[in-house]
Amino acid sequence: MDTQDRIKVAVQKSGRLTENSLALLRTCGLSYSRGTDQLICFGENMPVDLLLVRDDDIPSLLAEGVCDLGIVGLNVMLEKAVDGPGLVRPREVASLGFGQCRLSLAAPRDFEYRNAADLCGRRIATSYPRVLGAWLAEKGVSADVVTLSGAVEIAPRLGRADVICDLVSTGSTLAANDLVEAEVVMESRAVLMAGDPPETGARADWMDRLISRIEGVVRVRESKYIMLHAPRSQLDEIRRLLPGSEAPTVIPLEGRDDKVAVHAVCRENVFWETLEGLKAVGASSVLVLPVEKMLA
Ligand code: ATP
Ligand code: ZN
């Protein structure tokens, strides 16, 4: 295959998504040589090359057909989307299970935020004027959006804005700047985006293979094997609480007629709340194990 026939995947060069993106592709079986400051990494065992770029450039690289796939935050995808004649409209192929964050409004401690109407006529600093603008329009609020490319969180202290709209994951940056999260504008996560699919032939086959491997890796990562003991009388309730599971395996316990062991594969993340809910209806000895590989 010559270079035009190779699949190009755009990945953030250096930032919060880089490590997870590269690890995901490696888990899919791709090995590549990475130089220190390269723009392109050539896949050694598949006709797949990586373009290492700023995340902000990924939406237009996809739209212009420069790359076939891209791993990027949904927030950036919506903010930087380009549309026009001759441009591809990228589609979301998979949600990747990392890069979770939210684009939120945050206000100084003494700003008493109750709802969107409190933003009327106020200055809001953000790097997401488009996403914020759409949200304000939907709420029927007219505010003054101040676009900043970075250091948004210090804008209120500098007197450049009354409130901010920025990405939050733990909230520690907000707290450090004496800001209080007021409202979530959008929930975001890393997504796999694809441009126009190649028609047919080896390229199309490799695209399909790569996409289905990525989907498989994500599915397994989100899957957990749960084992627990349960009162027989609570089986229905326990089944209802197990997130995204198919019919669980129910096994008798030696010498106990009132209790059974329940084993289930859950295809959704299992959170502490779920475990607490299971315990509340009588489950005991609850074990949650990772799944390594799964053939559906
Ligand atoms: P680049 O140099 O590539 O433009 P950047 O500074 O714009 O990098 P990062 O801070 O590395 O970007 O964030 C990349 C993406 O990670 C964000 O667009 C968002 O989707 C996701 N993300 C997850 N959590 C957070 C967070 N707490 N703050 C910012 N971004 C986050
Ligand atoms: Zn960026």
Mind explaining what this structure looks like?
The protein is α/β, with parallel strands linked by helices and 296 residues long. The chain is 26% helix and 31% strand. It has 8 helices and 15 strands. The protein has helices at residues 18-27, 58-63, 74-80, 129-139, 172-176, 202-222, 235-241, 272-280, and strands at 7-12, 40-42, 48-53, 69-73, 91-95, 101-108, 123-126, 144-147, 163-168, 179-188, 190-194, 224-231, 249-253, 256-266, 284-290. The strands form 3 sheets. The chain has a 6-stranded mixed beta sheet. Strands 8-7-9-6-10 form a 5-stranded mixed beta sheet. Strands 13-14-12-15 form a 4-stranded antiparallel beta sheet. It starts with 6 loop residues before the first strand and ends in a 6-residue tail after the last strand.
Features:
296 residues, alpha/beta, six-stranded mixed sheet, five-stranded mixed sheet, 26% helix, binds adenosine-5'-triphosphate, binds zinc ion
Structure at a glance:
This protein is α/β, with parallel strands linked by helices and 296 residues long. The protein has helices at 18-27, 58-63, 74-80, 129-139, 172-176, 202-222, 235-241, 272-280, and strands spanning 7-12, 40-42, 48-53, 69-73, 91-95, 101-108, 123-126, 144-147, 163-168, 179-188, 190-194, 224-231, 249-253, 256-266, 284-290.
